[in-house]
Amino acid sequence: MENKFGLVYDGAISENIDGEVNIKQVSYEVSGIKVAGNLYLPADFDENKTYPTISVAHPNGGCKEQVAGLYAQKLAELGYIALASDARYQGGSEGEPRNRDYPENRIEDVSGMIDYLIGLPYVDKDKTGSLGICGGAGYTLAAAQQDKRMKAVAVLSMFNTGRVRRNGFLDSDIGGVHERLEKGAEARNKLLEGEVIYEGDNPEMSEEETREMMESLPEGLYRDGVEYYGITHKHPNSNSRFTTESLPKVMAFDVDERMDLITQPLLMMAGNIADTKYMTDSAFEKAVNAEDKELFLIEGASHIQTYWVDEYIEKVTGKLEEFFKRNL
Fold it and tell me: For the whole model, what pTM was predicted?
């Protein structure tokens, strides 16, 4: 049965019921571009009271109806107001060309969620936190470096997009950096002529083609990602493509460079067998000024499994409850 709110995760809210966690579909602008969001309200919500609030930034290629929505719902079940929004140029949000991925945009999207939340009369403006997942985790860390309205920062399965685009996954193609920069420059020229060139998978692939591609990949992030985004948790607003002209912008970004600017309480979570864990380890080591800093490893979990496996979701939710209760 299709979910009324377009949600594709297990246990998702299918209708708003009095006394339970509810969803309010919202829109607002960030730098003049309309953003689509889902605002999760705690059970027995009372608009005459104020609540602590948490923004949730989705993974690269994801949308608010997938894992970001799942954890936003879990946070609302814990008593927080939580907002999961689509990045500009992606998902249900506006912005052209579609799937542009500029780090400065994604970072401002996180601060834009905070802008929207603190403008709500029922939000406690002194108790604003942020959660980021995968690519959204890297951009959440970057936002926290400069936006001290974020009073507590948690990230899950962090993906440092700039490092991967620049060096290749697992730093496997450092020598190809200049070729990728040239590719991005050429794509920007094409964009001036009205042609948009993309990197990544074709979102129009059939399930059979998607399965064939998945089975051709080695075990790990990309194989699991094709399965999650292309089959088990597929959503029409989610795809892994990004504009090739984004490459130079992304490649100049590295969340590690200013991790010392994070002074807020910081929780970084990752699967202990995730092939992306090296990025969490690197950023965590550099967060030398973070208050109440903690690295939480999820035993037995790979990167994508933290998005949907009940056992790991329960562990992450329990750690989030402990962290945000202590710091918000």
Answer: 0.97
CATH assignment of 22-160+254-327, among 3.60.15.10, 2.30.29.30, 3.40.50.10950, 3.40.50.1820:
3.40.50.1820
DSSP one-letter code for 230: I
pLDDT digits (tens, 9 = 90+) for 156-178: 999 999 999 999 999 999 999 99
Element (H, E) at 281: helix 277-286
Query: Where are the domains positioned within the chain?
Result: 22-160+254-327
Q: Using an 8 Å Cβ cutoff, are 117 and 85 in contact?
A: no
Per-residue pLDDT tens for 86-122? 999 999 999 999 999 999 999 999 999 999 999 999 9
Of 91, 92, 95, nearest to 31 by C-alpha is 95
Parallel, antiparallel or unpaired: strands 81-85 and 33-41: antiparallel
CB 248 within 8 A of CB 181: yes
Which one, of 228, 324, 190, 209, lies nearest residue 269 by Cα? 324
